[in-house]
Amino acid sequence: MEASSAAAAALMGGVDYAVFAGMLGVSAAIGVYYGFCAPASSADEYLMGGRSMKTFPIAMSLIASFVSGVTLLGMATEAYLYGIQFSYVCLGLIISSIVNALAFLPVFYDLHITSTYEYLDMRFGKSVRILGSFFFIINMVTWIPIVIYLPAIALNQVTGVDLRVISPVVCIVCIFYTCLGGIRAVVWTDVVQSLVMFGSVLVVIIKGTVDVGGLAVVWSRNVESGRIEPPLLDVDPRVRMALPSLLVGGLMQYLYNAGVNQIMVQRYLALPTLTKANIAVWIFTAGAASLILLSTYSGLLIFARYFDCDPLTTKVARAKDQLLPLMVAESLGGLPGMTGVFVAGIFSAALSSMSTALNSMAAVVFEDFFKTFFPRRQLSERQAGILMKAVVVVLGSICTALVFVVDRLGSAVLQGALAGGLTSVAVMSWLILGGQAYQASGDIRFATKPLSTAGCRYAFDRVHNGSVAVAVDYQNSDVWSGYRVSPMWYTMIGWTIMLVVSLLVSLVVRPGEEEPRPGANLFSPLVRRWLPVDPLEKSYKTVEMRIISTEEERRKLKDVD
Predict the structure, then answer these.
(1) C-alpha–C-alpha distance, residues 53 and 303, integer Å
(2) Across the chain, what does the average pLDDT equal?
(3) How many CB atoms lie within 10 A of CB 102?
(4) Closest by alpha carbon to 494, among 430, 429, 431, 424?
């Protein structure tokens, strides 16, 4: 690799920008069509597509919602530095889909809800519903800027795309089509964007594999470096990636992300029947697992290309998330339009994540906040549409502004549920932020696979550019071992804390006798058979009643008695 090659390939050409602009133009055109040619006639149509959408588009939208640009870049970096251990999380994804199809979706379909937080109201009360909705909005508003910013900054530093131009343009286009077309526009743009996403990943993989000499070379170099290996069977939760944490932690993580997350559930319920929703679940599972494996392979491909000249050590790539864009710039830079295809693919993932989040936040604000705080205020369909579109514009604008902020900075059961949720948030915030802070300071370091610069054919500062490789796990003796817990366990730990605290508070603060028992439809079909039967339900008996219309019938009945 020549030192000048990256610089020569760094800038996108006119054809590349045309390809990228084409993707944005198609997305905007879909929004115009569903905003003016086939507009939503009601709030249910705007948010749920009238609950009559088709299975394949919804499945593709689920895939696009699940995978962001951060995911595509992050999984490639993960495989380059740590090997394929994370890819075994696909097993947890498959198990979570089984649980989702059997336990969760039947309940949501029976209740015919729009927001998943409506379930919390039915089960625990309005306070828990508002708390869950509030955390969802905060989560989305802080997540969207990162989803847009990280791909933008990585591509800015490698391909020359201007962050201050590309980020607002992408966000404005996304707000435009999401606001105009509602869920139908979001779903169909997701279809286009998911196809672009798959296509860009495949282009990079095929061209990159040919460049290094074929699949056999990729395989052999990664086997020799220890990146391709069987799953690690270590039960220690401090091990960064091991099969137990990937199965249990991955299961819990995907039960939330793909099972009860408002973004996903809203799309499941846009389908007319539970059977079609289950089909969509399995199409989504196959597509999401494929993208995880393809992104993992792209990380192995990066190592096969730079196996003897690590760009992180030489500072050709100044951040880990620049590895994949760097390879694309060098591999596809000489082919007109190909870099544009890759940029379009990365931003397609970001666009789909932002649009689905905005649409879901509109549903949550309308269903969980407006209808809860203004129950007597009846809006016309036109007024409801204006309100939801205003929510998309306002929250989308806030998220767009926060992209630049990120750039600058770099009852008894009710009480139990509230206490459990708040305690879980507090403890997990402390654990996650503390762990990230110690990793950033170098007090906690996880071992990477070996990296080399022996084959570099360009000059770099060998004295000051120390290798980024870490031979063994390291922890400062002053740091608590709990901060080393694998991130795959975070969802499981948070769920456990919430459940334990909720149960303890519920036992201490006993429910009053007048408190009604939750209906069986609020529980999964898998457990309904074991629910206690209400005494009123056990005491009834069937009584036959007849209408006696003639004197003769009355006489016969009297004779029988």
Answers:
(1) 43
(2) 82
(3) 13
(4) 424
